[in-house]
């Protein structure tokens, strides 16, 4: 295998950098030595850039008479369903060992896979070693190395006569077996039903399967002994897995496993439509809130009393707080995800209030304490309104005139609860007075968050604390452990 072939395949089919490709060329140069030393087949596989499959970019075969691979597999596509060890090592960055895997030639091999990492510790490829598995199992003291229940599984699979149905009879997948002339020699009950429905005939045994189901011709014409294809026909979505059964150079037959994904694809389309509808609802809610805000601003410009002005401003801030929730949802790339990042929401709500507030000398500090907190849109609306009311109170009453000061918003997390603390270093309050804003906070904390709200005593300023339990609607990612609150 020329190094130029590896470089060409990696350049065309992968996103690897020039340095990564150079590293793979270095590894590939040693494959033949290790193949001869271990009497095993060596391969390098790389993930493809446009799909979830991999491609073989390098190989080395040992000088053996009884070859497992008759032909080169350079440039062959590798599927997850047939090579789980390859994709496990890619995802986990760890070694994998498969005691019995199926090669492109339909032979059973023992497969060891190790990841190849670059200088940034990123997995750029996997190195594979394969040895043929013989039916006679060697003696070993390690019980984990041995399969068990061979007699029982043979009994269930139908190796012995019994009244028990074989496994393929109980599965929803279609199992079809054809001989070397592509004549149907076995079909499980689901397969029989499928063929009779699609071919409109009940005479199917020992009939050429391609004549019965012409849409399978491209699958049979495909030269690869192991092949996966997705077909769409007559409103059906099918995944066809083909394995040619060989003994040395002799082709014994072909096994087809067909999955009917029609119902699954229909459900996916329904979910997609629901997702689009939900997104459209979010858009409309956001637009309606902006319309309400525009009407309030228009009324304020038309002229209102000084006494009423503060009420209008408070209402505008509340509308904006709710609107911020939907803006963050719509900014989410995942259309089905309506979770809201509380930290980002708090920043959005507070920044506008401090910028538009009368006192420009008040600083705002928001601390997440190293945690990322997500919650449902319903709870996010409640939290946005709570933050709005409490920060707005501090801006209005804690810093008279042009007094300098700070407002600090703190999020603390525990194993089973979340705490929100909003404090300032302003003039403080001797006694809390009933107001619409505080009534909104109390109702939201108790009824929506099932939590507790209180003012904590401080020598300087005001300190409001909200505590509510963690629930399935609240997800905390502990980027940094936080204990004290």
From TrEMBL:
PROSITE patterns: HIS_KIN. This is histidine kinase. Keywords: ATP-binding, Kinase, Nucleotide-binding, Phosphoprotein, Transferase, Two-component regulatory system. It comes from the Bacteria. Its EC number is 2.7.13.3. The keyword DNA damage does not apply. The keyword Phosphoprotein applies. It catalyses: ATP + protein L-histidine = ADP + protein N-phospho-L-histidine. Gene3D superfamilies: GAF domain, Histidine kinase-like ATPase, C-terminal domain, PAS domain. Residues 280-472 form the Histidine kinase domain. One of its GO terms (molecular function) is kinase activity. SUPFAM superfamilies: ATPase domain of HSP90 chaperone/DNA topoisomerase II/histidine kinase.
